Amino acid sequence: MIIYDDIINVGVSDKTVSVFEGQYKVNGMAYNSYLIKDEKTAVLDTVDFRYGKEWLENIKMAGVNPDYLIITHMEPDHSSNIALFMREFPAAKIVANAKAFAMIKNFFGADFSDRKTEVKDGEELSLGKTQLQFIAAPMVHWPEVQMVYDKTDKILFSADAFGRFGTGEKSKDWAQEARRYYIGIVGKYGVQVQSVLKKTAALDIQAIYPLHGEILTENLEYYINLYNTWSSYAPEEKGTAIIYTSVYGNTEKAVFALSDEILAITGKRPQIFNLSVCDMAEGVAAAFKYSNVVLATTTYNADIFPWMHDFIVRLKERNFQNRKIGFIENGSWAPTAAKVMAGLLEGCKNLTFCANNVKILSAMTDTNINEIKALAKEITE
Ligand code: FEO
Measuring CA to CA, which residue among 84, 137, 138 is closest to residue 112? Predict the structure, then answer.
């Protein structure tokens, strides 16, 4: 796919992968790799190990011998074919930072010391007309990550940032899969993302070329603002997500009743996720999207139902904060789920816990209906 005359995406689109990184359900995945043609030719990153041959063919179709392989990120979905590239293009050099070279040695048993150009934050590389500047972006999403700013074409090669799940085709709702991708994969590192956003805010950026998903060429403020919201842990939207587990359907009845009450108050139905059947990463993304989150589960083995336990751990790992929280608990003889959930969330910053929670002792009662009304009122206030 030719984007600018002299910049080609030689990456691949994997239409078969259904689980990415061993946990994220996807309908395919794009591994972008960009070739910049100039007096010198540079290729940015490689692709997933299954697509090395196809990637090399794409490079060869460009009709040039690359002079440089620039590494922006060493996670194997982008770095797996470094040794293959070095064998195929024996005159080429690797351009990377010190942390990436250490990882190259760990992954490939060699750091190609006679063919390496080590770069630091702010340094530049000239390809001829094209002047590239390296921007350290540690922990977005690994410590060695760097972005590359093409000062000539005003393009930010953003590594994992601004990527999304999917095969790379343009989507009407970019945010849906970009949010699930960002919160799932980079969500823990909001502080580091904020710091890179501050650095890139000083640049004149006309296009963003990420390692996953589509190239962004218009309305860049929209994407950058979303990244600013996500990385500052601010709710993206006023509203409620209800995340639940239900063993025999009684907790679920309470969830639906709460949803109806919230709809009646706000005119907007909450997003509801049943952790036994949904993609957990969707529930995690929704908890970060909305201002209010209700967690509903049962007491189980003197703890809580395992999917809810796992879910809350995932929230906490990603620095979940700044939200209003309500609980629905169910327990037939010793209900402790609300207490356990609150305990698991301990340490999360700036959570406001509702006073009106719902305690079900096996099946819903009129008392529970009143509790649900009170919770709906409090959480939407
Ligand atoms: Fe797409 Fe962090 O790798």
Answer: 84
